[in-house]
């Protein structure tokens, strides 16, 4: 086809509307559909002034904006062009999952990771070198990169508002009512309110495990009282001699205490009196705003004589220190109303015959298709260790042991070891292929604290990004620099060190496979001082777990032998970890083991609800 026939012989712009004479840059130019192999050098007559060059660039930009691309649309003749309608404005196309993450599939042409791995290894693709990335394989929609949005119920929002207004309050609720979720929102809100003073909000808990879960310290550590066995006056004198401790008391505006159910009433009074002495104010705690939470129906304070236990709500100054007390009623963990009602009866120690029969029927074995079993909860740590080590010994695969890296400002070995023992992660973690593990840190909106999985292999992070998916599995692939949220490179990583690749089971039935690298756990004061830290894999063996460490956890699969529980509240704590009856197995159910402390049951009737 000739140039004339194709319509590409020349390109000429019609300037009759805008000017009488076209600019030099619009003169007729030769147009060859196939560019010559080598263009002739420009002649000296083609040189343009700076002003002409700018005009040419502007006009070319206008041409590109208003004229359809040659390769995409049939070229119109000059006569046709005058009658043709202007091109329709291109509509913006949003991805199908713009409003629904479950429907969204990332565009593959924009991701280097979706090229054939074999082609990458053969050098078929040329790229700028970059650090090796860990790889995560999905058989479910990929999770959001951002933390999942938190939606509070009406009663939670009202409590949050009261906290923001400066009220001292206590709130409680049965297991799964969102006490921890609300506490994190309160902490975030009050830190924002007092943002000018970084140490104005003190985050504490009665136990080390609870303190670690909310990113705080024990109440003993915050107060600087050691064991706290002396009188309030003696303890105040002791604190005055410690500049850091006394400064904390003076600068604190809000004191948060989680798991107050395990705080002795006498100690609560001592702390209140110490605050008054150090801050020289008669109000309880020296006028500090208190945000206190916990469930008194769960594990009680640890005392030498359990029959003479004194709860925090029995403290002499409780009513003066805390003006409002609330009971959350909406359950989020369990969605089966029958199960919710059974747990509420158990919480108060008043089981109906129907609930007793239902709990006894849960002794049946449960089989899961993904090869993972239930986590068995024990009251004693020794039983947990025996169960996990016994299951590990049955695996005929080589062991891999990971040693934690510990740090912190506390120099006393005894005090430091006690703090470190409160972490969920262990000093030594031994794993094998096919070991059942639990994630103990939130990574994103699908892999959270409590997610269950199994070790499928071990791999060096520097080569994992170029390996094929585990066992040839297919699916969407996400790249993550590390599971660590605190460092780009794991502090304890060593050249050639191999880490576990874990296949996690998701609640919706999907799978995620991820290389797990070390992460950091720490005990931090309001000033930012890290008293104790541990860098370790955020995993624990998950065939068995202690009831004490399970407090606050949400587990999809739970197995409990009630014949071994011995403390009031243990049965309730253990069974309420489960999200459904389908994932709960109960052995040796005995209604006599289901007990609630009568003082707690009587006091709970005085609590407010949001509707009051």
UniProtKB/TrEMBL annotation:
Comp. bias (Basic and acidic residues): 100-118
DNA-binding residue intervals: 570-589
Comp. bias (Polar residues): 16-28, 61-74
Predominant localisation class: nucleus
Superkingdom to which the source organism belongs: Eukaryota
Localization, UniProt: Nucleus, Nucleolus; Nucleus; Mitochondrion
Reaction catalysed by this enzyme: ATP + H2O = ADP + phosphate + H(+)
SUPFAM superfamilies: P-loop containing nucleoside triphosphate hydrolases
Keyword Protein biosynthesis: no
Pfam families assigned: PIF1 (PF05970), Pif1_2B_dom (PF21530)
EC code: 5.6.2.3
Positions with a binding annotation for ATP: 173-180
Any one annotated GO CC term: mitochondrion
Cofactor or coenzyme needed: Mg(2+)
Summary of the function given for this chain in its UniProt record: DNA-dependent ATPase and 5'-3' DNA helicase required for the maintenance of both mitochondrial and nuclear genome stability.
Family recorded in the similarity comment: Belongs to the helicase family. PIF1 subfamily.
Quaternary structure note: Monomer.
Name of the protein this chain belongs to: ATP-dependent DNA helicase PIF1
